[in-house]
Design goal:
There is one protein chain. By secondary structure, this protein is mainly beta. The protein contains 1 helix and 14 strands; from the N terminus they run E-E-E-E-E-E-E-E-E-E-E-E-E-E-H. The strands form 2 sheets. Strands 1, 3, 8, 9, 10, 13 and 14 form a 7-stranded antiparallel β-sheet that branches. It is globular, with a radius of gyration of 15 Å.
Amino acid sequence: ICPVWTLNGTDEDVSAPDAAYWTQDDAGGANGFSLTIWIKTSSTAAVMWSKRQSSGAGSWQSYITSSKLRLLVRDESVSANCFRTEDAASIVGTGWKQITLTYSGAGANAANGMLVYVDGVLVASTATNNSGGTYVGMEDLTQLPHLFSDGSGTWLAGDVAGGCAGPTYSNAILTAEQVKNIYRIQKGALAL
């Protein structure tokens, strides 16, 4: 029912023009966001969505590392990262999975305001705050937002749902109930 992109993991991505919309001013402890994407992958390391390059410069990134989901935000001026990583690998090689990552806009100790959902269910994850420096807030830098890569060499291989179940970025912080309802609707649209 919904179209599917099949990505080769070497050179396919989508980018959008840089705009303030893509970077939240979280220094004051507000202005979070949510990301949702349906993927089927065997990649143990890949970028799903990013406004950050592999060199480190940028604002945020959602990716797979050592087969685990991670959401990261970066304060570029002090080279500080905050991130949340799922405790147990849940998506690699397991068929279609809906991933939703939310960030409350917590600012300092940002990882405490992040949640990881798989198939509409909150999964256990670990927060890491102030890696490399003391995080204050994201900065609106000039990196383009990229879907399926970081724009500079790390790519996603596998299938990604499009259309009504396609990737979404929202400046709203989805609640657990909203995540579950979106999962149910999109699962039906994908005929899973």
